[in-house]
Amino acid sequence: MRFVIVGCGRVGAQLASRLSVQGHQVAIVDRDPAAFCRLSPTFKGQKVEGVGFDRDVLIAAGIERADGFASVTSGDNTNVVSARIARQIFRVPKVVARIYDPRRADIYRRFGLQTISPTEWAATRIAELLCHPGMSVVQTLGNGEVNLVEVEVSAHLAGHRVNELVMPGESMVVALVRDGRATVPSLATTLQMGDTLQISVQSTAMGRLAGMLRLA
After folding, report:
1. DSSP letters along 50-105, please?
2. Which run of H or E residues covers position 3?
3. pLDDT tens track for 1-54
């Protein structure tokens, strides 16, 4: 696949280097040529000097053939403008913009732009760690409405059935790991000490799930 990344800061450089190692074609754009020194020595992609919302610069980076685009500069305005150009003018199938202001991020989502807000993500993650220390959030889905959490079965849970942890419309056990082997459990599966569960749960129901698990 071919990706164009705008912004060769720490995030952009790491993203570009990671995609390059995975075998993808990557072009990274930055107005400061010195920024390219942040790239991994193994980076085999294209380095394009210029402004990330300049049409000619983006064309030079191969945006017309891009499967995905990400703008991860330190400026919200640059990221949004670049993302909208990629989406609306060049019709890139997958476009992501990093937005620091969570209030603006929500507005841009309504415009159809997929955004990542480090501020919002960090605040949410810290709150989860403080409020629900027994549950490890392994993935956040959508815009944070649903979490995939990992829980180790304690002595309190051992002997109970999976159906006791299900809240219709709010939580569901999606996987169970026992003795290193993962399965999709049935509602009648009996939990054993040392089992690891992965549970999908609405963010608004995290507290209720913690109470069921006696982690609150």
Report:
1. S-TT-HHHHHHTTGGG-SEEEE--S-HHHHHHHHHIIIIIS--SEEEEE-S-HHHH
2. strand 2-6
3. 999 999 999 999 999 999 999 999 999 999 999 999 999 998 999 999 999 999
pTM beyond 0.85: no
CA atoms within 13 A on the CB side of 87: 19
| Unique residue bearing structure tokens 């990706």 | 3
Query: Please, what are the domains in the chain?
Result: 2-116 (3.40.50.720), 121-213 (3.30.70.1450)
Contact present, 205 and 135 (Cβ < 8 Å): no
Chain-centre distance for alpha carbon 106: 16
Residue 61: closest CA among 71, 72, 50: 50
Cα dihedral 148→152→154→157 (10° resolution) = 40
